[in-house]
Write a structure and sequence with these properties.
Length: about 220
């Protein structure tokens, strides 16, 4: 009578041809080989329980199926990430309108943005302020209806020299009932796209920092 013990199973599982790489995982081929050996060497007076064998096969099939499904899902995730990255890459060189009071110069050195007024305003002053708190530019708008109003500045001082950013946008608006709070957005240039490792979301590289594509109100 032949007895199959733990060491025999260990030898079967670890037996590999010369030069082969060690693999501590049990694939489907190794599992079937192991089961066949177990059936050949079982004690005829104490055979392997059929119920246990079927349960082992079902468990292995389930694990193998999950592994294949995870592999397929991983491939799909990579394809989706590549697709999103490709779409975002087409934005490079374009300008994005972002809801922020920070303004950076565009490729031509100009500063552009928009303000959104919830109510009519009789007088609106848009100021660009540098890091020292000095106002470098003012733009005045009168009798503005509720909605969006654009502003732009060539980015040059009185001597024609470019003013570096970032600058802060300050809005003072007054209407029939007093001050009107305005939402502020500025245009910034998209200079690159990053796709972080680990499946993280794609990021847009801009002078304002890394932004999500969702941060772009619109492109221009």
């Amino acid at each position: 009578m032949t007895t199959v013990n733990g060491s025999t199973f260990g030898n079967l599982a670890l037996e590999q041809p010369p030069g082969a790489k060690h693999n501590n995982t049990l694939d489907q081929t190794a599992f079937l080989k192991l089961m066949t050996t177990q059936l050949k060497t079982q004690d005829p007076f104490n055979p392997v329980d059929n119920t246990q064998m079927v349960a082992q096969m079902a468990q292995f099939s389930s694990v193998a199926g999950i592994a294949e499904m995870n592999k397929s899902l991983g491939a799909i995730a990579q394809d989706l990430q590549a697709s999103r990255l490709g779409s975002a890459a087409s934005w490079i060189g374009k300008n994005a309108l972002v809801e922020t009071d920070q303004a950076t110069p565009l490729s031509d050195g100009s500063y552009r943005g928009e303000i959104a007024l919830p109510d009519d305003a009789s007088n609106v002053i848009v100021s660009l302020v540098d890091g020292n708190g000095q106002v470098v530019h003012n733009a005045t708008f009168e009798n503005q209806k509720a909605g969006s109003t654009s502003f732009a500045w060539d980015g040059k001082d009185a001597e024609g020299k470019p003013v570096p950013g970032p600058l802060r946008v300050v809005v003072n608006a007054t209407g029939a009932t007093g001050n009107v709070d305005a939402a502020i957005g500025t245009w910034t240039q998209i200079t690159g796209v990053q796709s972080p490792a680990g499946g993280a979301s794609t990021r847009l590289v801009t002078p304002l920092g890394l932004l999500s594509p969702d941060d772009a109100v619109r492109l221009g």
